[in-house]
Design goal:
The chain has 130 residues and is an alpha+beta fold. Strands 1-2-3-8-5-6-7-4 form an eight-stranded antiparallel beta barrel.
Length: 130
């Protein structure tokens, strides 16, 4: 099963932006969940999945907080884990959907450049929202 590295940032108390990279592939997308959770960042998230896809809407459930995120989608055999940048007051059980768009790049350098562009864009959005 491939393991992709990336990040997850909440963009509100019920939505997230995620970006992951694996060799020639980059995945990015948005998701929504319930219930509300204080905003959080996972700068070093890991996505494990058993097959690559172009686009998918992935149902997920799991926990966010107090120190980690641990969500999964048995339907897609996908699992996301990582440490939160700052702890939350408690663990929250969430359920939602993450829409990911996969792009296969010509080479690893092109994938890395696309990943860095999305990382910069997400950081700028977080600064603008603050």
């Amino acid at each position: 099963m491939p393991t992709l590295s990336g990040f997850i940032n909440s963009t509100s108390t019920t939505s997230i932006f995620a970006q992951f990279k694996y060799i020639f592939w980059t995945y990015k997308g948005n998701g929504t969940f319930q219930p509300e959770v204080p905003q959080f960042q996972v700068p070093d998230a890991t996505l494990t999945l058993d097959l690559f896809f172009d686009n998918a809407s992935i149902p997920f459930s799991g926990t966010v907080g107090p120190n980690t995120i641990d969500i999964s989608s048995p339907e897609h055999n996908a699992h996301v884990t990582g440490a939160l940048a700052s702890p939350l007051d408690k663990a929250y059980y969430i359920k939602g959907y993450l829409s990911l768009n996969g792009i296969q790049h010509e080479d690893e350098a092109q994938a890395e450049a696309a990943f860095k562009d999305a990382t910069t864009e997400a950081a700028t959005e977080n600064i603008d929202a603050a």
